[in-house]
Amino acid sequence: MIKSDFLVIGSGIAGLNFALQALEYGSVCLVTKKDAVESNTNFAQGGIAAVFSKTDSFNLHVRDTLKSGDGLCDKYAVEIMVKQAPDEIENLMALGATFDKDAKAGGLQLGQEGGHSRKRIVHRGDMTGAEIEKAMIENARRNGIRIFEKHVAFDLILKDGACIGARVFDVGKKRMVEFFAKAVAIATGGLCEIYENTSNPEIATGDGLAMGFRAGCDVEDIEFVQFHPTALRRKGKPFFLISEAVRGEGAKLVNDDGKRFVEELARRDEVSRAMFSELRNGTVYLDMTHIGKAFVKERFPTIYRTCLENGIDITKDRIPVEPVAHYTCGGLKTDIDGKTNVPGLYAFGEVACTGVHGANRLASNSLLESLVFSSRAAESAHAYNVGREIGFVNTRQMSVASDRPTELKTRLKSVMWKHAGIVRNEKDLIKALREISLMQAYMSKKEGVNEEIIEINNILLAARLVVSAALARTESRGCHFREDYPEKTEDWERHISLKRAGKGFLKL
Ligand SMILES: Cc1cc2nc3c(=O)[nH]c(=O)nc-3n(C[C@H](O)[C@H](O)[C@H](O)COP(=O)(O)OP(=O)(O)OC[C@H]3O[C@@H](n4cnc5c(N)ncnc54)[C@H](O)[C@@H]3O)c2cc1C
Residue 43 Cα, ligand 1 centroid: separation in angstroms? Predict the structure, then answer.
């Protein structure tokens, strides 16, 4: 049994930022399911949106975010996020993260991405996330945050309705460990690993979403999964994302005949759908051969190198690209201070739904959202902790299972891609739901836990939540597209909240 004032689950930007700030108020334990660096954060290329340019304003950033969110953003939360952005960038620099500078104009070099009406993307080449992750982990280790790697959280511990800890599987020692804390924070990232084609690393299995939901948290806007239009398929390896920043610098999307078929900087959902239909007739390419070679190599070193390793010289060759599941707009419902509806339980980053993304996230707002709301949550969790003791209950011990039903994960990912992907309809969504039910029934007979069983149970529940909300929303809005209901309707200018009720759940 391990005790601390704060327990953080997840070592991406959201978990680490919270941990670093909470450390000012008490002891912090952080559990993370693989090596600390493994996170979506580490893969983020484009950068962080923040108003620094003289030609930009908070109002414009708010306006662009609301437009992308397609009627479902919480304007107050968006304003908070946008106004706090420059301070968060300064904080990152104080931690040692460095961003590209504009040699001519001075100050930070700002990139442009789809949906942004101004240049406002702060970046470090095309490896912004890795730069931030490195700086945060170094600070966390140096300042005495206890980081437990290869520790998979699988259930929250509740007492009198409040969260007082988590049960965690120690993969190395193959045993259960109980962590107790005054406040518990979920920062486990998104769920795009429920899809066959995804830009996300293997950790993105919706664990925190599933854990939070089982503990009684409301889940909101979960039907809105964002698909990124441009990823490179690699043999025997995960898809490699080609950042939108490339299109921001003038790259074109063309078909087999070399013809453009979509506005490159249109919203991601529009570009993804245009590609989805274009791909039925052939291949789609990203063409940046007209952009200067020296500039491409300097601005996009990781993309240049990775494509070259896959036989494509992007300064001479077009890149074949496909859309992939990329970002979870909805999640555990929180207020503007990261509080869920379960006392003592906080959530932030991609696992949370603060309301800033609405029906569709604006590019480069997610690292920003993670920073802003984890900072606010640290203050709020500290206030909750004052005068409180660390709780304790005896929990049921579980045996360690030897069974590893990984084939189920492969099956689910294929079902979700086929039946609940970019273009959805009632018939297919019902098929997906049936398949998920069968797989859940099979898993319910399994005894004991190990890391695979934990993950499979979580991705099945995460997938079920996505499909149920997608079925309920009988319209097309933001990144949710129903070919049987292709229009947006006023009636649906509202959120779908899912709430646990016994073994099933309620839609509100
Ligand atoms: C390829 C790619 C490019 C992107 N580019 C950008 C960009 O340019 N700008 C932008 O704003 N956003 C970008 N995003 C999105 C952004 O990276 C994420 O939304 C953001 O990093 C989420 O941060 P997080 O801390 O919430 O989660 P993550 O960074 O995903 O971290 C989650 C952490 O939780 C841990 N974890 C998960 N489950 C468990 C468990 N059961 N027990 C213990 N630990 C667990 C994981 O191991 C990980 O450490 C990109 C995403 C990808 C995949």
Answer: 8
Catalytic residues: 268
Q: 206 CB under 6 A from ligand 1?
A: no
Q: What is the pLDDT of residues 420-473, one digit of tens each?
A: 999 999 999 999 999 999 999 999 999 899 999 999 999 999 999 999 999 999
pLDDT digits (tens, 9 = 90+) for 442-451: 999 998 999 9
| Summary mean pLDDT of the chain | 95
**What is the pLDDT, as a whole number, of residue 355?**
98
Note the pLDDT of residue 269. 86
Q: Is the beta carbon of 45 within 6 A of some atom in ligand 1?
A: yes
The pLDDT of residue 266: 85
d(CA 303, CA 291): 14
| φ, ψ of residue 303 in degrees (nearest 5) | -65, -45
CA nearest ligand 1 atom 8, residue? 46
Q: Report angle CA 74, 77, 81 to the nearest 5 degrees.
A: 135
Q: Residue 176: CA atoms inside 13 Å, Cβ hemisphere, count?
A: 16
The predicted-structure confidence for 162-199, as pLDDT tens digits, reads as follows 999 999 999 999 999 999 999 999 999 999 999 999 99
Q: Which domains does the chain show, CATH number per domain?
A: 2-222+326-385 (3.50.50.60), 229-325 (3.90.700.10), 406-489 (1.20.58.100)
Q: How many CB atoms lie under 10 A from the CB of residue 9?
A: 28
Query: Taking the CA atoms of the chain, what radius of gyration do you get in angstroms?
Result: 22
Residue nearest to atom 35 of ligand 1 (CA): 10
What is the position in ligand 1's atom list of the atom closest to the CA of 45?
A: 8
Quote the ligand 1 centre to 13 CA distance (angstroms): 7
Q: Which residue has the CA at smallest separation from atom 50 of ligand 1? A: 44
> How far, in Å, from the CA of 41 to the mean position of ligand 1?
4
11 contacts 364 by C-beta, under 8 angstroms: no
The residue whose two tokens read 């036989």 is 311
Measured in residues, the chain has a length of 508
Positions in the chain short of pLDDT 50:
none
Does ligand 1 lie within 6 Å of residue 113's CB atom?
no
Which tens digits make up the pLDDT trace of 354-389? 999 999 999 999 999 999 999 999 999 999 999 999
Q: Please list, in sequence order, all residues whose beta carbon lies within 8 angstroms of the beta carbon of residue 59, skipping any fewer than 6 positions away.
A: none
CA of 190 from ligand 1 middle (Å) equals 7
Residue having the nearest C-alpha atom to atom 31 of ligand 1: 12
Ligand 1 contact via 306 beta carbon (within 6 Å):
no
CA of 143 from ligand 1 middle (Å) equals 23
Q: List pLDDT tens digits, range 245-256.
A: 899 899 999 999
Question: Which regions of 245-320 does DSSP assign to beta strands (E)?
Answer: 252-254, 285-287, 319-320
